[in-house]
Design goal:
45% of the residues lie in helices and 20% in strands. It is of the alpha/beta class and 313 residues long. Strand 7 (206-208) and strand 8 (213-215) form a beta hairpin.
Length: 313
C-alpha cells in the first residue's frame, strides 16, 4: 500500500515536472527504499518488544485455570516449594495471574501461601527423617555440599549447625571429628549423642514441634553460645542474600550472627537465584557459599563481586 501510494506521488510529480530522466528516478527510488526500510525497522522493533507479553497472554487464553492449577500442584509435589518467579516461567503467565492462582489454591487448602511463593501442604510435601534422609530432595548434591563444609572445620573448633536436611547431613560428616557442635536441632543432637560424639551443646529454649528445634525465649540467651563457624541454609539465595520462609527459625538464627566467626551458607543449586520469604542475611554478611555446579552463574558472579567466597561441588 505504501509503495503504491509513493508510486502515485512519483507519477504525479513526474507528470507535473514533465521529466523522465534517470537521475530523477534513481533519487526517487533511493528515498523510497530508505523510507520503507525505516518503517520496517520500526514494525519489527515493536513486534520484538511486545512479543513476550503477547505470547504470555495467548498462552493464558489457551490454558484453562484448572490446567494451570494442576501444573502448579505438580510442581509442588516435585519440589515442595515454588516461587512466584518459577510459576511465571513454568506456566508462562503474567505475575498477576501467578499470584491469583496461588491465592485461589491457598484459599482452597491445596497449598500453603508464603511470601513470594507457595509451599506444599503436609500431605504433598516430600518428607524426610534422619532414618530416611536419602529421600530428601537433591540428596547427592547435599552430601557433596556437606563434605566440602566439613573440610573447613579445623580440629578443636566449635561450629553452629541449624535445622534441615543439609544441616543433618553436615552433622553426620562432622560426627567423630575433633569439633564442638552447637545446635538447637534436636534430631541432629540426638544423632550425635547416640554416635557418642565428644562435644555436643544443645541450645536451650522452648521446643518447637514443627521444626524440631528449641527457640530461646530471651534475646540474651544467644550470647551464651559462640562458634568459629555458623552453617545455615534457606529457601533461596540471590545477590541480595539468603532467604528463609520460617520466620521463627530465621529470627532465632539471626540472634546468633553476632556471636560466630564466619557465616557459611549451604544451599543446593536449585535454590540459587530464588527469592522467597524473609531476607535472613545480606550478601555482605555471608563469608562463604557452598552449592552445586549447576547453580545460576549470574548470581554466583554477583556474589563473588561482593566479596563472597563461592565453593562449587
Amino acid at each position: 500500500m505504501i509503495v503504491s501510494l509513493l508510486n502515485l506521488i512519483y507519477r504525479s510529480n513526474h507528470s507535473y515536472n514533465n521529466q523522465s530522466n534517470t537521475a530523477f528516478e534513481a533519487e526517487f527510488y533511493t528515498r523510497l527504499l530508505r523510507f520503507v526500510t525505516t518503517a520496517l525497522k520500526r514494525v519489527f522493533f515493536t513486534i520484538f518488544k511486545y512479543n513476550h507479553q503477547i505470547i504470555i497472554y495467548a498462552l493464558e487464553l489457551i490454558m484453562t485455570e484448572s490446567q494451570r492449577h494442576q501444573l502448579l500442584l505438580e510442581m509442588l509435589q516435585q519440589t515442595g516449594f515454588v516461587t512466584v518467579e518459577q510459576v511465571i516461567d513454568r506456566l508462562q503467565v503474567s505475575p498477576a495471574t501467578a499470584r491469583r492462582d496461588i491465592n485461589k489454591l491457598g484459599e482452597s487448602g491445596k497449598l500453603k501461601k508464603v511470601r513470594n511463593g507457595a509451599e506444599a501442604v503436609s500431605q504433598n510435601r516430600v518428607a524426610w527423617t534422619p532414618m530416611n534422609i536419602h529421600q530428601a530432595q537433591n540428596h547427592e548434591e547435599k552430601v557433596r555440599i556437606a563434605r566440602a563444609a566439613s573440610q573447613l572445620v579445623k580440629p578443636g573448633e566449635s561450629i553452629v549447625i541449624n535445622c534441615g536436611s543439609t544441616a543433618f547431613t553436615l552433622g553426620r560428616e562432622i560426627c567423630g571429628k575433633d569439633a564442638q557442635v552447637i545446635t538447637n536441632y534436636l534430631p541432629l543432637a540426638n544423632f550425635l549423642i547416640e554416635q557418642e560424639h565428644d562435644s555436643v551443646v544443645i541450645m536451650g529454649g522452648q521446643y518447637n514441634r514443627s521444626q524440631a528445634i528449641t527457640l530461646a525465649p530471651q534475646e540474651g540467651e544467644s550470647s551464651l553460645y559462640a562458634g568459629h563457624w555458623m552453617f545455615t541454609s534457606g529457601k533461596g539465595l540471590t545477590a541480595e542474600g539468603l532467604y528463609k520462609t520460617d520466620m521463627l527459625t530465621a529470627m532465632a538464627e539471626q540472634k546468633m550472627l553476632n556471636y560466630v566467626g564466619k557465616l557459611v551458607v549451604l544451599v543446593d543449586s536449585s535454590k540459587v537465584g530464588q527469592r522467597a520469604g524473609m531476607l535472613f542475611s545480606r550478601a555482605e554478611q555471608i563469608d562463604i557459599v557452598i552449592t552445586g555446579k549447576a547453580a545460576d552463574e549470574k548470581v554466583i558472579e554477583q556474589l563473588k563481586a561482593q566479596g563472597v567466597e563461592v565453593i562449587l561441588v
